[in-house]
Specification:
The complex is a heterodimer of chains A (147) and B (395).
Chain A (H helix, E strand, L loop, with lengths): L2 H24 L4 E5 L1 E2 L1 H7 L8 H7 L1 H9 L7 H5 L3 H5 L12 H8 L36
Chain B lengths: L1 H7 L3 E2 L12 H25 L9 H14 L2 H7 L6 H5 L9 H32 L2 H10 L8 H34 L12 H27 L6 H32 L4 H9 L3 H25 L4 H27 L1 H4 L6 E2 L11 H22 L12
Antiparallel strand pairs in B: 1-2
Helix pairs in contact in B: 2-3, 2-4, 2-8, 2-9, 2-13, 2-15, 3-6, 3-9, 3-15, 4-15, 6-7, 6-8, 8-9, 9-10, 9-13, 10-12, 12-13
Classes of the chains: A mainly alpha (147), B mainly alpha (395).
Chain lengths: 147, 395
């Protein structure tokens, strides 16, 4: 075997040995506990702070609004879709205010005319023509848009 | 919440919630771009060696060193995009075969260690021995270490270098194909995305890689000669340009074939892709990729095959073409990576992407990873100057 090849094989052996040592010492403990990932990642992710709660939680305190909403057409629209993540608020309402989206632009996000989305599921209006210049909530109650 | 509202204002039509913000940003555009430059530069070097094209000789070492310089940063866009500076190394020491993306580690290591480094080593071994004898102090030690403390300069040892170097070049060509074919596979195998999912993807990526790599070597060759105040060998440039021309034609044909296939098949995704290409991708696809990056270079190079203007004019044209091609291939990667994420998999809507919109580090990091290889290349060329290599008189 030529000298070069011998030396190269040696160099490769050293490289592989270093990699194996690194692999031995640096591989995270929970690697391959379940699959090709850190098992601990699961507890880390489940330990993350929640951001959203169920609508029933809001209803515990805001029962009038929740009741109103269950009778209206917005029954399928969750509170937090409009008011944002409410976990902290539900925990401590006095220090964590939620958003209240009063501007036209907000309602139009779902209700503006859009050829691509199915017409019969969400009613669509012409953003320019439909009572231009007035906030939607002066006429429609957001929690119960129609009786 | 604020940024979500902002993103929501940029939507058209219907889109699923997980498609609003792009997961793969500019850094993921840089990844196939840089990897492609590596594969392309290497294939140019191999063409030179295996088919023994004398005219390309002055670029042989330059292409190899260019490939190495870009190879060393090829993983960096991915690693920085992960955004885990404290434990990114875990990815490198936990190899596994259960995901297509994890295979990159193997492909990369094979190509870097077994192909590129070895080929350069065999090519330079003899010269490094000579240099280690000429230099003093640290540099002497450094060159000695690079030769792995072999000081054999006998003709037999040079024959061995030559033999193994050739052998590795021969292995190297399929390896370079594999390297960039793999990157194409990553996109082509995503069956949920009609813009990506085509068996042609690896082949298209490969040919566009060759195009960009050859253009890069052409550019670097001219730049180096300019910086060294040496005359560029116009015959060599003409030859590179000839290969660039051929491969550009092949690349363009393959890509057109893919599009024609798509247009003729006109499956359920076709309508949205048509709107995508004519709308959000109009500038990057028709103007940058096809116009600047393909048609202008092809016509110019085509004309140059038949009519040869003065040397100076040709050099300027080659310089412009190499830059155009490099820009064009960048936008080809852009159209694949970003374009594939702009439309909803419901085929009913679009999101949009503005660089720097989210996070704000994508542009600066991408630029960084494009500039760093040039510095590495400068260092490599200083360390292993191709023009100081020993040339056999009889050859």
């Amino acid at each position: 075997m030529p000298l070069q090849v011998k030396r190269l094989l040696l160099a490769f052996a050293v490289f592989i040995a270093i990699m194996l040592v690194l692999k031995y010492f640096l591989t995270p403990d929970s690697w391959r506990e379940y699959g090709a990932y850190r098992g601990k990642a699961l507890t880390e992710i489940s330990g993350k702070e929640a951001k959203y709660v169920e609508m029933e939680t809001c209803a515990e305190c805001h029962d009038t609004i929740a009741g109103l909403k269950t009778q209206g057409l917005h029954v399928s629209v969750q509170c937090e879709i409009c008011h944002g993540p409410g976990y902290k608020h539900a925990d401590d309402p006095d220090n964590n205010d939620l958003e209240i989206p009063r501007e036209r632009q907000f309602c139009l996000r779902c209700h503006t005319k859009n050829m691509a989305s199915p017409q019969d599921i969400i009613k669509q209006i012409d953003a320019v023509e439909h009572n231009e210049g007035e906030e939607c909530i002066t006429c429609h109650n957001p929690h119960q848009p129609w009786l | 919440m604020e940024s979500l509202y902002e993103a929501l204002a940029n939507l058209d039509g219907f889109i699923y919630p997980n498609e609003i913000a792009l997961n793969w940003d500019l850094l993921i555009v840089m990844y196939p771009y840089i990897t492609g430059l590596v594969a392309g530069a290497f294939i140019l070097a191999s063409l030179n060696r295996v088919f023994d094209i004398k005219a390309l000789k002055p670029t042989y070492e330059i292409s190899l060193l260019t490939a190495l310089a870009f190879m060393l940063v090829a993983t960096m866009p991915l690693i920085t995009h992960l955004g885990q500076p404290l434990r990114f190394y875990e990815m490198l020491i936990t190899p596994h075969l259960t995901s297509a993306m994890a295979i990159f580690g193997f492909v990369y290591l094979w190509y870097l260690m077994v192909v590129l480094l070895l080929e350069i080593w065999f090519d330079y071994r003899y010269d490094m021995v000579i240099w280690s004898q000429q230099k003093k102090g640290f540099m002497k030690f450094f060159y000695k270490a690079l030769t792995l403390w072999i000081s054999d300069t006998s003709p037999e040892s040079r024959k061995t270098d030559e033999k193994f170097g050739y052998f590795i070049t021969v292995i190297g060509i399929p390896s370079a194909f594999l390297l960039h074919g793999y990157v194409g596979f990553i996109f082509g195998s995503i069956k949920a995305n009609p813009w990506w999912s085509t068996v042609m993807m690896p082949v298209i990526f490969l040919f566009s890689a060759m195009v960009s790599g050859i253009a890069l070597v052409m550019f670097i060759y001219m730049a180096i000669n300019y910086l060294r105040r040496k005359k560029t060998d116009i015959f060599c440039l003409d030859t590179i340009a000839k290969y660039l021309f051929y491969i550009l034609i092949l690349d363009f044909t393959l890509e057109s074939l893919d599009q024609i296939h798509r247009i003729y098949e006109a499956d359920e995704s076709f309508d949205i892709l048509k709107i995508l290409v004519r709308g959000k991708l109009f500038f990057t696809f028709f103007i940058m990729q096809i116009g600047i990056g393909t048609l202008i270079p092809i016509t110019t190079l085509g004309v140059l095959q038949f009519k040869k203007p003065r040397e100076r004019t040709r050099k300027i044209l080659y310089l412009i073409i190499s830059i155009f091609v490099l820009v064009g291939i960048f936008f080809m990667r852009w159209n694949v990576v970003i374009g594939g994420q702009l439309f909803s998999k419901s085929f009913y809507g679009f999101t949009s992407y503005k660089v720097n919109l989210i996070g704000g580090t994508d542009v600066s990091l991408s630029l960084l990873w494009f500039i760093v290889p040039f510095f590495i290349l400068a260092f490599l060329i200083w360390l292993l100057p191709p023009w100081k290599k020993f040339v056999e008189k009889t050859n």
